[in-house]
Amino acid sequence: MTADESEAVDAFERLGLTSYEAKVFIALHRLGSGTARDVASVTDVPRSQVYSVAESLEDRGLLEIQQSNPIRYRPVSIEEAQTTLEERFERERERAFEYVDAVKQESATEETQEDIWTVRSRDRVDDRVVDLLSQAEETIVFGTRLPSLVTDSIERTLEEQAAAGVSVLVLSRTDTVQERLGALEGVETAIPPTHRDDDQRSGRIVIVDNKSLLLSVVDGDLSETAIWSADSLFASVLIQLIEASDEVQPDAD
Amino acid sequence: MTADESEAVDAFERLGLTSYEAKVFIALHRLGSGTARDVASVTDVPRSQVYSVAESLEDRGLLEIQQSNPIRYRPVSIEEAQTTLEERFERERERAFEYVDAVKQESATEETQEDIWTVRSRDRVDDRVVDLLSQAEETIVFGTRLPSLVTDSIERTLEEQAAAGVSVLVLSRTDTVQERLGALEGVETAIPPTHRDDDQRSGRIVIVDNKSLLLSVVDGDLSETAIWSADSLFASVLIQLIEASDEVQPDAD
DNA sequence: ATTCTGTTGTTATGATCCTACAAACTACGG
DNA sequence: CCGTAGTTTGTAGGATCATAACAACAGAAT
């Protein structure tokens, strides 16, 4: 089995198929159609197992069975298979989250909790940044040294919030960041004080409504870790610290 | 645990979580946030297991971990969780089918194969009908007694094909079917000969380009099973049989 | 017709892996 | 010393994987 194929099998497994199911499905697409023997001959799935595996695939709507002797199997088209799997996923997703939504605790109580949370990995920091930005009602301060940390969805959220009347200030010493975000309607840009920007490990900083804060650092291998806090005393104190230090060294270079 | 909750847990399991992961995730949404003890006290997940389960959920991007003593856990918002799962699903789907698409056998050879395929369950018959209809180049005959067997996507495909110049003929003894499909631009309707329509188990009939055929029957419990064949001798023979019997009893009532 | 051979489809049986579940253990603070 | 927090280890059960045995059947050879 090639590396590509085992990657595809792994992907199918993460979609909920067993490895046998994935292999049989792929083999049938390679063959067009075939019998249990045909499938077994081009995979490492034992022939005796093909029958039950194929039945399970039929249950999933991924192939059709020709009742003849020998039994022939035919995969549904790639488009139909994708649609079927997608419908199934959407159905399960709705069912799952419908209940969660019904029992979820409104974050009203959470506002007074003194919590600092940690978020690991770039994608999740991205998510958290967008989340915080979209909660802004009055002011946003967004800063980063690295253009790669300004994702499309962050840019879009900043633009939306600016349009909604939120005061948006972008801090960056990097030209591309300044140009990209400064081009957005209603977004101001500025150069941050030296002391913070000099730190080569600095990632991003987000301050929302002077109440919520996110700070991230980028590791040597470019992995990002962030801490954040919303509506907490911690956040207020940290924000005040940061803003105070800004005033100590205003626009120094 | 309520019935609703165990349904939600099942749904999460089908989305790829373990039952512990589902329970912890749900519990944390119910609590807003909490420690391992909190979670264990409202679920049947042993406290000692909460730690590892929560780590696995963090890896999936479904919760965040506060490094304190005791450790606190916080679920990401429902929206973020859904987005994360969806992105994961789409990523895996692409990876899986990219390979299948690369190795798939073009159905060119299949055209001459003498195969009759069986399709079980309504949804899949729907899919197959749409598939056959969209392959039409010259003529379509579509017949059904039951209005419920005319799905939106079937109606849409019939309309598209009629607009593309395909001759579309709808056979039905049922008024609602006649009215619904007859209203489409370029679609003709007619009343089928008696002998076939009298069969209470008849489902649908699709004839495409006089080369492909689908016939379905509806069981007592309304489950549907179809046979179909495309570009085969079988299909031609069956189509000729059907059309011949039409001529024997033209418009009889 | 009988025997032999090979194929097909079904079923049974271990091996292996992962989850579920339980219970130990360490560490720490009052 | 005791209760709590967090880690670690161990076991039972279930699903998947992998192999083998089996009856039914068809065609070829005798």
TrEMBL record, chains A, B:
Residues 14-79 form the Transcription regulator TrmB N-terminal domain. SUPFAM superfamilies: Winged helix' DNA-binding domain. It comes from the Archaea. Pfam families: TrmB (PF01978). InterPro entries: TrmB-like, Tscrpt_reg_TrmB_N, WH-like_DNA-bd_sf, WH_DNA-bd_sf. This is Sugar-specific transcriptional regulator TrmB. It comes from Natronorubrum thiooxidans.
